[in-house]
Design brief:
Elements (H helix, E strand, L loop, with lengths): L17 E2 L2 H7 L6 E4 L2 E4 L5 H21 L2 E5 L3 E3 L6 E2 L3 E5 L10 E3 L4 E6 L4 H15 L3 E6 L6 E7 L5 E3 L7 E3 L7 E3 H5 L6 H9 L3 H13 L1 H9 L2
Parallel strand pairs: 5-8, 9-10
Antiparallel strand pairs: 1-3, 2-3, 4-7, 5-6, 7-9, 10-11, 11-12, 13-14
Helix pairs in contact: 2-5
Length: about 240
């Protein structure tokens, strides 16, 4: 089951953008501004809608828990700059992952060079930017894996793209069961059904499923969640 790309001619165009140099952009933007610099133009992003934010929170919690637990690298969320190349665009992906072998790219201010994995959550106003512009840039500048997670009503789902030996993105096959295994985050996998659920699954229980917690441990976690924090805290204090 491979994703099907949206034809470029069906993708809406973006609004007019601000023009300035990269140096002017750095002086103009602060750490709270969610904006990107591309070819002398600045794209200022509107605050995300609730569904978009929920998906980002679910994925970053899940990814960060997994990556931190196994010490695989670092996870960052927007607004955090990824300067793809010295003369290339400056993007702020919804989520990025830098593998342990490439942590020298990560500075206090930004990621210098491509992330190993980039996740963009597609909203109504970001379709062209995510599916066309960023797709081309991430492919060109060396991002190894790109997830496009659609948050639009009636389109909830995801596409997964993996860089091949020739430097081109190839659509990943998630199989009939709808499970995608990351090629970059070793051992990490996702069910498409998780991204389509409403409400989204609990990230801790999902992490436990990914790493293969025993059924009895899963049962304990679900029982604690059902009882609520006060009851769980009382039980823990009595042990």
């Amino acid at each position: 089951m491979r994703p099907v790309r949206t034809p470029v001619k069906q993708v809406p165009t973006e609004k007019e953008r601000l023009r300035m140099s990269y140096e002017e952009f750095l002086a103009w933007a602060d750490e709270d501004v969610h904006a990107e610099w591309v070819n002398g133009e600045v794209i200022v992003h509107m605050p995300p809608k609730d569904t978009h934010q929920n998906i980002v929170t679910f994925l970053v919690t899940l990814l960060r828990t997994f990556v931190d637990f196994f010490k695989l690298g670092q996870v960052r969320t927007a607004p955090f700059e990824m300067k793809l190349a010295p003369d290339g665009p400056s993007r702020q992906p919804d989520i990025l992952f830098v593998a342990r072998d490439h942590l020298e790219r990560l500075t206090e201010d930004r990621l210098i060079g491509p992330a190993d994995l980039v996740v963009e959550v597609v909203s109504a106003d970001s379709v062209r930017r995510d599916l066309v512009e960023k797709f081309s840039e991430y492919e060109h500048y060396g991002v190894r894996e790109y997830w496009l997670v659609d948050s639009r009503p009636g389109r909830r789902g995801a596409e997964f793209w993996v860089r091949d030996e020739e430097g081109r993105f190839q659509a990943a096959d998630v199989g009939e069961e709808g499970v995608y295994h990351s090629t970059v985050v070793s051992g990490f996998w996702l069910r498409l059904a998780w991204l389509q659920a409403d409400p989204l699954p609990d990230p801790l229980l999902t992490f436990a499923e990914i790493v293969g917690f025993p059924p009895e441990v899963m049962a304990v976690l679900r029982d604690l969640a059902a009882k609520g924090p006060r009851a769980a805290g009382q039980e823990a204090s009595q042990q």
